[in-house]
Structure formats: structure tokens, C-alpha cells
Design brief:
The complex is a heterodimer of chains A (291) and B (306). In chain A, 43% of the residues are buried. In chain A, 34% of the residues lie in helices and 28% in strands. By secondary structure, chain A is of the alpha/beta class. A 6-stranded mixed beta sheet of chain A has the order 5-6-7-3-8-9, with helices on both faces. In chain A, helix 4 packs antiparallel against helix 5 and helix 5 packs parallel to helix 6. By secondary structure, chain B is mainly alpha-helical. In chain B, helix 7 crosses helix 12. The mean pLDDT of chain B is 87. Classes of the chains: A alpha/beta (291), B mainly alpha (306). Chains A and B meet through helix 2 and helix 3 of A and helix 1 and helix 4 of B.
Chain lengths: 291, 306
């Protein structure tokens, strides 16, 4: 099966700053991929490169196209919500549907209206009168009405309260994900989307530090809960991360720990948050902890 | 979905966003001149003192006067509006933070910029002038009925007036197109400066222009910048207002009125030929090329909008 996104040796510079550093990954059809990383890790830059808004060096193919040189054609098959996407405040929801109908060849106005009716937003409501959560829901309804194979969402729930975030993800999963389409979603709220994801990409300072499916993460990474008495033995085995869990201590290992160490603890399922912290800690923090 | 359909939708977007202001802009000239016609029509002096009051002129000239007056007010108002909005227009979508939404749609950057420019520089002024032309006939109706009675309006030589009005409208549209193209270096480079330099644009453009006119020209073997500005402005004005077409109402009054009105369509055609001939020049080509550079800078700014 051909990958929807294929990146090989992807690099991107802002002047002398390297925003993306030799990224290689693929996104297969039917996957829900989380793109995780701290502020400034390169998530938005990568997403903009994927939709043709930034030119990157290296090989990049999205839906079989070169995004930068074939942006318009690519966006006909791709639904995209940028990180700072603000719907035009002067427009009503109905006007936005009219405009989308004229601008996007795979947009279904009927489906958009049906999706909007499932929210608390009216078709005649001006965007300027909507709350931030409502605006994001309208935006998702608009892009979910596009018959695309890939949806790219850049921090779509940033700044929303928990109810709005929940409503957003429910609409995304219920109305768009059908097992064939893929979603690439970047977010800081790692714990909220963990259950939705099938794969994870982790960026740290422009570098891809992890590109795995959730199943492979469970197989590769081992978390051990242990008593305080075993802390020194755990530390001696050089875990990726030592952290607190359910009132106790735990250590996260990349691969199986030595049997004598494994025998000192109980295996836990490593959470994505802990893995994220372990793999994307800033160098200065790592240095401090190593010291 | 073809590109034209998408482009039309982008034009529709401009209409949706600005329609309230535009409707006011289109109605205002007629209302202003209507007010003038209703309340002060008797007191309006036309031409030299011996030409007398407007209402004393032949009806056909009164009709032409009100038509020209309304269209002139429409032209002034729409020109001022466009010029005032132009610098802000370059950064409109960035300022209301919707730029990323527009860039997430399958529309080329050139189409996005082109639709905005076409609508604001050509279609809006054309619509305002057309509205002024149509509205002027309401002014003519009200003025004639008010000052001369309802039956007199029916006695106007419509067979002669209507072809003149139709050709006049076409001549206006041609003039508008040529004027915008003549002015495109100034308009589009100012917009590009606004897009790239933000609030520094107006000071920078003003400073560069002043340096060009007062410093650079003084050091060149022959002045270049000042005459270029002057040429652009003059050609644009001549393209629009056709100063040679009318030699004042006095001349028309003194000549055979019927012949003058009957000759108006031919005079309009000849004038259209004159402004087209002015456009067939290296200066016009250079103006269009520099305008295209401004357009390219605007597209580049939209492409790189962050």
C-alpha cells in the first residue's frame, strides 16, 4: 500500500537556524498520527512543508505530489487546519459554506450543513459572535466536509477548554476517520489524544526522535514500577526516564532492561506523556539531570 | 472546478466582505447630487457668468450636466475610497488573522492577490461609476420634473441621449482600465511596500519619492523621477476625464445644439481612440511592467506570509 506521506532526508532552514533536520518518515493510509514536540520543535514548520507552504530540501511526497510545486492540486485532496487558523470574522457560517463550495472541488455543502447542525452553531451566525470553541468546531465541520484522503491538523485545540476539546475530537473521529483516511495531528495535549492515535511522530529541536506505531511503542519501551529501595539499581541500568507514578517510582527503558533489574519491578504500560518527556527533554535539562 | 469558477468565488468573497460599505459608496453620489438638484438647482451657475443659471440652459444640456456631475462625484468618492484603503488592503488578511485560513484552500497565491486587486481597483470603481450613471438619470428625472414639470422629461431627445450615455459608459470603463494601468506602478508598489514594510510603508514610500524628485533628479543629466510621476498622473487623468472632449457648455450653447448632441457619440469614439493611442507607447508598457513587479511582490509576500 502506497504511503500517503513519504519524507526522506527532509531539511529546512530559517536563515542559519535549522528548523527540520534530516527527517525521514512515512504515513500509511487509515492511520491517526500524532505529531508531538515542544514549542519550537518544528511541528508547524513540518506541517507547512507538508501542505506546500514552505519549501524543504530532501524528498517529500504527499499524496504522490511535491507539496511546494503542486500545492493547489495537493490541497484539493487534503484537508488542513493551520495552527493559527482564524475563520474570517466578517463572514457568517453560511457564507463560509458558500465560499468553500466555490473554492474547494471536493467540498460538500450539504455535509457541512449537516455537521454544523450537530453543533450549537447556527448557519446564519456570524463568526465574530462565536466563542473560540465554536469557531474551531465550525472549522472542523468545514474541513470534514471535504472528501479528502488526508487531514492535517496543526494544534487545532490550542486555547480551548476541555469540553470544546472533547467535542472537537469526537467530531473528528465520528465524522471523518473511516479506516481509510489518515489524520496527522499536532498537539501539546498529549494525554488527551493518546487513545485516538495509531502512530506517533516526536520532534525535538527539528529532529525526529521517534516514529512508531502505538503497538511498537508498547513492544519497544518498558516501564517498571518499583519500590524506593530499588531506585539505585534502576538508575544504574540507565533508564530513559525516572518518574513518579501512582504514588510510587517508575523507570522507563528503551528496550528490555537487564533481567536482574526487571525482576525488581512490575512492568507498566509506558504512557505517551512519559515517553514524550523522556525523548524530548531539552539539552539543558538533560545536562542538569546528568550532572 | 475550473480556475475561473474559483476566481469568481474569490471575487464573491470580496463582495461579501465589503458589500455594506460598497452599497453606501454607490448610492452616495446620487443622493448627494440629488440633494443639490432638489434644493439648489436654480442657483447653480454653469460656465462663465453670462452662461446663466443651470435651469436656464436647454434641457438636454441640463441632463448632460447632471449626468456628468453625478458620475464625477462617484469618481471622486470611489477614487478617494480606493486610495485610502489600498495600503491596508495589502495586509487585510494578516491583520484579521484569516490569512492562514485562505492559504489552506486550493487557491494559488496569484489568484488570491489578483481577485482582491481586480475587485478593488477595477470592478468596484466600475460598479461605482455605473451606479453613478444610472443614479444620474434619477437626478435628471427629479430635477427636470421639479423645475419644469413631468411632461418635459418626456420631451428630452432620448434618441440622441441614450447612445451618448451608452457610449459614455463604455468610454468611462475604458478610461478606468487605462487609468489603473497607468497608475499601477504607484498603486501596486505602494501596496507591496505596505505588505512588506507594514507601518513603515507610507513613510518609506514618501521618503523614496521625495529623494527621487528632489535629490536624484537634481543630479541626473535630465530629471527622471518627477517627470515620470507627472506623466503617470497626467495620462491617468486624461484617460478618465477626456479634457479635450468638452470645451465647456458655452461653446455648445453657442453652436448648433442638436448637432452637438448628435456628434457626441462620434466625439466619444474619437476620444477613446486618442486615449488608446496614448497607451500604445513605451511609457505605458513600462508602467505595466513596473505594475507587474508590484503584483509579483504582493504574491511573494502572500506566499511567505507567516
Amino acid at each position: 500500500m502506497q504511503a500517503l506521506i513519504e519524507a526522506q532526508g527532509l531539511n529546512l532552514h530559517y536563515g542559519r537556524k535549522q528548523a527540520l533536520d534530516d527527517l525521514s518518515f512515512a504515513v500509511q493510509p487509515g492511520r491517526v498520527v500524532g505529531l508531538l514536540g515542544h514549542n519550537g520543535a518544528g511541528k508547524t514548520t513540518l506541517m507547512k512543508a507538508l501542505v506546500g507552504l514552505h519549501a524543504a530540501q530532501g524528498r517529500l511526497s504527499v499524496l504522490g505530489r511535491d507539496p511546494f510545486h503542486d500545492r493547489v492540486a495537493l490541497l484539493e485532496d487534503l484537508a488542513y487546519i493551520p495552527d493559527v487558523a482564524i475563520l474570517p470574522r466578517w463572514a457568517t457560517v453560511s457564507q463560509l459554506i458558500t465560499l468553500m463550495s466555490g473554492l474547494h472541488p471536493k467540498f460538500s455543502a450539504d455535509r457541512a450543513r449537516a455537521l454544523i447542525r450537530r453543533t450549537s452553531v447556527g448557519l446564519g451566525d456570524p463568526v465574530k459572535n462565536l466563542s473560540k470553541g465554536m469557531v474551531v468546531q465550525v472549522h472542523l465541520a468545514l474541513v470534514a466536509a471535504i472528501d479528502a484522503r488526508l487531514m492535517v491538523l496543526d494544534e487545532p485545540t490550542l486555547g480551548l477548554d476541555v469540553l470544546s476539546r472533547k467535542a472537537f475530537y469526537e467530531m473528528l473521529i465520528d465524522e471523518w476517520c473511516d479506516g481509510q483516511r489518515s489524520v496527522l495531528i499536532s498537539t501539546h495535549q498529549v494525554e488527551e489524544i493518546e487513545t485516538l492515535l495509531s502512530d506517533v511522530l516526536m520532534l525535538n529541536e527539528g529532529r525526529l526522535v521517534l516514529s512508531l506505531s502505538l503497538e511498537d511503542i508498547d513492544r519497544r519501551f518498558v516501564a517498571l514500577g518499583h519500590d524506593p529501595a530499588a531506585a539505585d539499581a534502576m538508575a544504574a541500568a540507565h533508564p530513559l526516564l525516572r518518574y513518579r507514578v501512582q504514588g510510587g517510582s517508575a523507570a522507563l527503558f528503551d528496550g528490555a532492561p537487564p533481567p536482574e533489574v526487571a525482576a525488581l519491578g512490575q512492568r507498566l504500560r509506558p504512557s505517551l506523556v512519559d515517553l514524550f518527556v523522556a525523548l524530548t527533554r531539552r539539552p539543558e535539562i538533560n545536562r542538569t539531570q546528568e550532572g | 472546478m475550473d480556475r475561473m469558477f474559483r476566481f469568481r468565488t474569490l471575487l464573491l468573497r470580496e463582495w461579501m466582505q465589503h458589500r455594506t460599505g460598497w452599497l453606501v459608496l454607490m448610492a452616495l453620489p446620487t443622493l448627494l447630487v440629488l440633494g443639490l438638484g432638489l434644493f439648489d438647482g436654480q442657483g447653480i451657475q454653469v460656465g462663465s457668468a453670462d452662461a446663466g443659471d443651470l435651469s436656464a440652459l436647454p434641457l438636454v444640456l441640463q441632463a448632460l450636466f447632471w449626468t456628468l456631475a453625478t458620475v464625477a462625484v462617484a469618481l471622486v468618492l470611489v477614487s478617494l475610497t480606493v486610495l485610502a484603503q489600498l495600503p491596508g488592503l495589502a495586509r487585510r488578511d494578516q491583520q484579521d488573522r484569516s490569512i492562514e485560513f485562505w492559504r489552506s484552500l486550493p487557491v494559488s497565491h496569484a489568484q488570491g492577490v489578483g481577485a482582491t486587486l481586480l475587485m478593488h481597483l477595477l470592478l468596484l470603481p466600475a460598479a461605482a461609476l455605473a451606479a453613478g450613471l444610472v443614479g444620474s438619470q434619477l437626478v435628471v428625472l427629479v430635477s427636470v420634473v421639479l423645475h419644469h414639470g413631468p411632461l418635459v422629461w418626456l420631451q428630452l431627445p432620448w434618441g440622441q441621449l441614450l447612445p451618448s450615455l451608452g457610449l459614455g459608459a463604455l468610454r468611462l470603463m475604458l478610461g478606468l482600465l487605462l487609468a489603473v494601468l497607468w497608475l499601477s506602478p504607484l498603486l501596486l508598489l505602494t501596496m507591496a511596500a505596505s505588505a512588506w514594510l507594514k507601518r513603515w510603508a507610507v513613510p518609506v514610500v514618501s521618503a523614496v519619492s521625495l529623494v527621487g524628485v528632489y535629490w536624484l533628479d537634481a543630479r541626473l543629466p535630465m530629471p527622471l523621477v518627477g517627470p515620470a510621476f507627472s506623466r503617470l498622473g497626467t495620462e491617468a487623468l486624461y484617460a478618465l476625464v477626456a479634457p479635450d472632449l468638452f470645451d465647456g457648455p458655452r461653446r455648445v450653447v453657442q453652436s448648433e445644439l442638436g448637432a452637438a448632441v448628435a456628434d457626441l457619440p462620434m466625439a466619444l469614439l474619437q476620444d477613446a481612440g486618442r486615449v488608446l493611442a496614448s497607451a500604445a507607447s513605451p511609457a505605458f508598457l513600462l508602467a505595466v511592467v513596473v505594475g507587474a513587479l508590484g503584483f509579483w511582490l504582493l504574491v511573494l509576500r502572500r506566499q511567505r506570509a507567516d
